[in-house]
Design goal:
The complex is a heterodimer of chains A (172) and B (279).
Chain A: H1 2-22, H2 39-43, H3 50-68, H4 73-91, H5 106-109, H6 111-134, H7 140-165
Helix pairs in contact in A: 1-3, 3-4, 4-6, 6-7
Chain B: H1 2-10, H2 12-31, H3 33-61, H4 63-80, E1 104-114, E2 122-125, E3 138-141, E4 144-152, E5 157-161, E6 169-173, E7 179-183, E8 191-198, E9 208-211, E10 223-232, E11 238-245, E12 254-260, H5 263-278
Antiparallel strand pairs in B: 1-2, 1-12, 2-5, 3-4, 3-12, 4-5, 6-7, 6-9, 7-8, 8-11, 9-10, 10-11
Helix pairs in contact in B: 2-3
Classes of the chains: A mainly alpha (172), B alpha+beta (279).
C-alpha cells in the first residue's frame, strides 16, 4: 500500500515535470497540443476511491494550470475526466470484473483494452479543455479538429511512455 | 433536512464533482481575462438591453428641456468664440514667470495653401519673418502634429507637412515609451509608418503615438496618431506600425507654429559634444 502510494507520488511528479518541461515545448503547430500528464489519472489503481481520484486530479490540473497560466481550465478538465473514469472502467470491464492486484495498463489488460479506455477519457478531457479555452461557439469545428488531433497525439505519447517504462516488467 | 443530507451522502461522488467543477469555474472566471470579459459581458447583455430601452423611452420626456439647455449653451459658446472678437494683436503670446522658464511659445496661423496628393506636400501659412517665424520650427494643429517650417518670407512661411519624404518625426508609444521615427511612405494621406518598436512591446490597435522629448523641434507629448495595424517584416526584429494620423490634412485650417526658445542652446551644446567626439 505504501509502496503503491510512493509509486503514484513519483509518477505524479515525473509526469508534471515531463509535461511542463518537455511536452509544453513541443511545437507541432496550432492544431496539436498533446497533454501527456493525464496518464497519471489513467494509471491510478482500480481500488482508488472515486472521490480521491477526483481530488487528486483537481490538484494535478491546478498545478498544470499554474505553468500554463490558465487558472482552472486544466483542473476542470481533469475533474471531469476523473468523474467519467468509473463509468468508462465499468463499460470495458471483463465479465468477472477486474482481478485484484491488476492495474489499468497495457501489460495487464492488453493494448485494445487500454486504447479504448484511455482513448475515451483522453478525448473527454481534451473536449472540455479546448472548449473552455475557446469559450465561444464561432470556432466550433476548427476546435473540434484540434481536439481530435491533440487527442491522437496525446494517445501516441501515452502509449509510447507505457512501452518505455513498463516493458517486460512482472511477466505473468 | 435529514433526507437532503441522505441524498447528498448517497450521491457524494456526483456532489463532489459538482463542487470541484464550480470551484474550477470560479477560478477560470476570476483569473482568465478573456473568459471573465465574455462572462461578464454576456450576463450584462440582458440587464443592459432592459436599461437601454428604459432610458430611450425616458429621453423622449426630457426632449424639450434638453433643447432649451442646448440653445442656451450654443448662445454662450457663440459669444465666446473667436469670431465674436476683433483681432487686435499679432497673436504672439509670451508668459512671464519667474519659477518656470518658458520653453515654447505658440504662434497661431491660418493655412492659406495646402496639398495632400503629391509625394512631397507643403502647406503655406499666413505668418512669416515679421511675426517671428524661423526655419525648422514645428507646426502643430489642435488635433496633432502637422509639419516643419521650411522657408520663411516676410509675411508667409511654407511648411513641409508630415506627408513629405524628408520629414521624420521622432515619436514614442505613449503608454510605454518605446521610440522610433515616424514618416510617410507616400500612399494614403491618412496613414504614416512608425518603425523600430521592439517586439516585446505589447501594441494594440488604437494605442496612442505621441512625439518624444528627444527632438529639439517638437514639444513632448504632441499627438501624432493611433496604431492602425502592425507587422514584423521578415528578417527584422521590430514592429513596423501603420499609424492613422490624428491630423486630417485635407481639412487642416488653423495651426500653431511652435517656437522653442531654448532650441539654440540645445543645438549648440549637442554640436559641441559632437565635435568633441569626432576629434
Amino acid at each position: 500500500m505504501l509502496n503503491e502510494l510512493a509509486k503514484n507520488g513519483l509518477r505524479f511528479l515525473l509526469l508534471v515535470l515531463a509535461q511542463v518541461l518537455i511536452v509544453k515545448n513541443i511545437d507541432l503547430g496550432r492544431f496539436i497540443n498533446p497533454f501527456l500528464y493525464v496518464l497519471f489519472i489513467l494509471l491510478l489503481p482500480f481500488e482508488t476511491p472515486g472521490w480521491l481520484v477526483m481530488i487528486v486530479s483537481f490538484f494535478l490540473g491546478l498545478i498544470i494550470d499554474m505553468f500554463y497560466d490558465t487558472m482552472g481550465m486544466h483542473a476542470a478538465a481533469c475533474v471531469f475526466m476523473a468523474f467519467c473514469r468509473p463509468s468508462v472502467l465499468r463499460l470495458f470491464s471483463p465479465r468477472e470484473g477486474y482481478d485484484f492486484g491488476t492495474q489499468p495498463t497495457i501489460q495487464y489488460l492488453g493494448l485494445p483494452w487500454f486504447l479504448s479506455y484511455a482513448g475515451i477519457l483522453v478525448f473527454l478531457h481534451h473536449l472540455l479543455l479546448f472548449y473552455i479555452e475557446i469559450f465561444r461557439f464561432s470556432e466550433f469545428f476548427s476546435t473540434f479538429f484540434r481536439i481530435l488531433l491533440s487527442s491522437i497525439f496525446t494517445m501516441l505519447l501515452v502509449v509510447i511512455t507505457q512501452f518505455l517504462f513498463y516493458r517486460k516488467k512482472e511477466e505473468k | 433536512m435529514r433526507n437532503l443530507i441522505l441524498f447528498i451522502w448517497k450521491n457524494n461522488f456526483f456532489v463532489l464533482f459538482l463542487l470541484l467543477e464550480l470551484l474550477c469555474t470560479y477560478l477560470i472566471v476570476m483569473n482568465n481575462g478573456f473568459q471573465r470579459a465574455r462572462f461578464i459581458s454576456s450576463s450584462n447583455a440582458v440587464s443592459g438591453s432592459v436599461l437601454e430601452t428604459y432610458s430611450e423611452v425616458e429621453e423622449y420626456f426630457n426632449l424639450r428641456y434638453t433643447n432649451q439647455l442646448l440653445a442656451m449653451e450654443n448662445a454662450r459658446l457663440r459669444s465666446m468664440s473667436i469670431a465674436s472678437f476683433a483681432d487686435l494683436s499679432s497673436g504672439n503670446i509670451v508668459v512671464k514667470d519667474s519659477i518656470h522658464k518658458q520653453q515654447y511659445s505658440y504662434i497661431p496661423a491660418k493655412v492659406v495653401n495646402n496639398s495632400t496628393n503629391r509625394r512631397n506636400n507643403y502647406l503655406t501659412l499666413n505668418k512669416g519673418y515679421k511675426q517671428g517665424i524661423r526655419e525648422e520650427m514645428a507646426v502643430i494643429s489642435g488635433t496633432g502634429i502637422v509639419g516643419i517650417v521650411k522657408n520663411v518670407s516676410e509675411n508667409f512661411c511654407s511648411v513641409m507637412s508630415i506627408l513629405h519624404k524628408d520629414v521624420k518625426v521622432n515619436c514614442k508609444v505613449k503608454k510605454e515609451g518605446s521610440f522610433g521615427p515616424l514618416f510617410w511612405e507616400g500612399n494614403d494621406y491618412q496613414f504614416a509608418t512608425f518603425t523600430d518598436i521592439p517586439t516585446h512591446v505589447r501594441l494594440l490597435k488604437g494605442d496612442t503615438i505621441v512625439t518624444n522629448s528627444y527632438s529639439p523641434t517638437f514639444p513632448e507629448n504632441i499627438l501624432a496618431g493611433t496604431v492602425e495595424s502592425f507587422t514584423i517584416k521578415s528578417g527584422e526584429s521590430f514592429y513596423t506600425v501603420k499609424v492613422r494620423l490624428s491630423t486630417d490634412f485635407r481639412k487642416v485650417d488653423y495651426v500653431y507654429i511652435v517656437n522653442n526658445i531654448l532650441k539654440d542652446e540645445q543645438v549648440k551644446l549637442e554640436a559641441a559634444s559632437q565635435t568633441d567626439k569626432d576629434k
